[in-house]
Amino acid sequence: MERNEVWFIAVVATTMGFLAGMVWMDVGHSAGRLERYQTLITGFLAVGAAFITVNAMKRTDQEQRARHAEQMEQAKRPERLARQRIVETYPAVFDYLASEAELVGLGSVFVCIRS
C-alpha cells in the first residue's frame, strides 16, 4: 500500500468516525458507552497506527538494503573491469606470473584475480 493511500484511508476513517459520533448524539443516544470505552477504542487505534508505522519502516529498510547492495556492486565494478582487462590484454605475462606465484606458494592470489 502506497503512503498516499494510507493517509487517504486514515483521513476518511477519521472523518467517518466524527460523523458517526455526531449522528449518534443527534439521534438521542447518550455518550455513556463512548465515555466508558474511549480508552479501549483509542488503544486499538494506537496499535493499528503502530502496525502501519512498523510495516512502513520494514519496507523502507529493505529498500535501503537493496540500494546499498547495488551501490556496493557498482563501486566494485571498475576494479573487476581493470583486472579483466589486464588478464585479457597480457595473457602471456599473466600466465608467467601465475606460474611463478605457484612456485612460491601464492597461486591462489592469481586464481582470484582471474575470476
Derived from helix and strand composition plus strand pairing, the structural class reads mainly alpha
Q: Sheet with the most strands?
A: none
Q: SSE order in H/E notation? A: HHHH
Question: Over all CA atoms, what is the radius of gyration?
Answer: 32 Å
How many β-strand runs? 0
Q: How many domains in all?
A: 1
Write the layout of secondary structure elements.
Elements: H1 3-26, H2 32-89, H3 91-104, H4 107-114
Short description:
This protein is mostly helical.
3D structure, described in words:
This protein is an all-alpha fold. It has one domain. It has 4 helices and no strands. The chain has helices spanning 3-26, 32-89, 91-104, 107-114. Helix 3 (91-104) runs antiparallel to helix 4. The model has no long low-confidence stretch (mean pLDDT 77).
Features of the shown structure:
115 residues, single chain, mainly alpha
